[in-house]
Amino acid sequence: MDMDKIKEIAYSNEGKKIQDMFKGSEIEQAAKSGDIESLKGAVSQLLQTDAGARLAKQISEMMKK
Predict the structure, then answer these.
(1) pLDDT tens sequence across 13-30
(2) At residue 10, does pLDDT exceed 80?
(3) Burial 43-63 (b: 16+ CB within 10 A, else e)
(4) What is the number of H-type helices and E-type strands within the chain?
(5) Under 8 Å between Cβ of 6 and 62
(6) Please, are residues 28 and 22 in contact by the beta-carbon 8 Å criterion?
(7) Dihedrals phi, psi of 13, to nearest 5 degrees
(8) How far apart are CA 46 and CA 42, in angstroms?
(9) For residues 60, 35, 24 and 11, what is the CA-based torsion angle, rounded to 10 degrees?
(10) In angstroms, rounded to a whole number, what is the distance separating the alpha carbons of residues 13 and 43?
């Protein structure tokens, strides 16, 4: 996987929106605590947002290359 492409996505508008959503969020707390079930639920909710869906699409397209 190309790290430059990952960085590009991370710093895209969608990536920045997602980063802002993570700060102090359930996802951040679940990741820090290692609570996989809570993390799965939080990521699922995130992917239901417009920004999350766009980010997931960008990542999916990147993985195909």
Answers:
(1) 877 777 777 776 777 777
(2) no
(3) beebeeeebbebbeebeeeee
(4) 5, 0
(5) yes
(6) yes
(7) -55, -45
(8) 6
(9) -20
(10) 18
- Give me the residue label for tokens 């820090």: 32
> In this structure, are residues 58 and 47 in contact, taking their beta carbons and an 8 Å threshold?
no
Tokens encoding 23: 């700060």
What b-and-e string marks burial along 18-38, b requiring 16 or more CB atoms within 10 Å of the CB?
beebeeeebbeebbeeeeeee
For the stretch 30-42, pLDDT in tens is 777 888 888 888 8
- State both tokens at 3: 């790290």
Model pLDDT, residue 45: 83
Q: Which helix (H) or strand (E) covers residue 12, if one does?
A: none
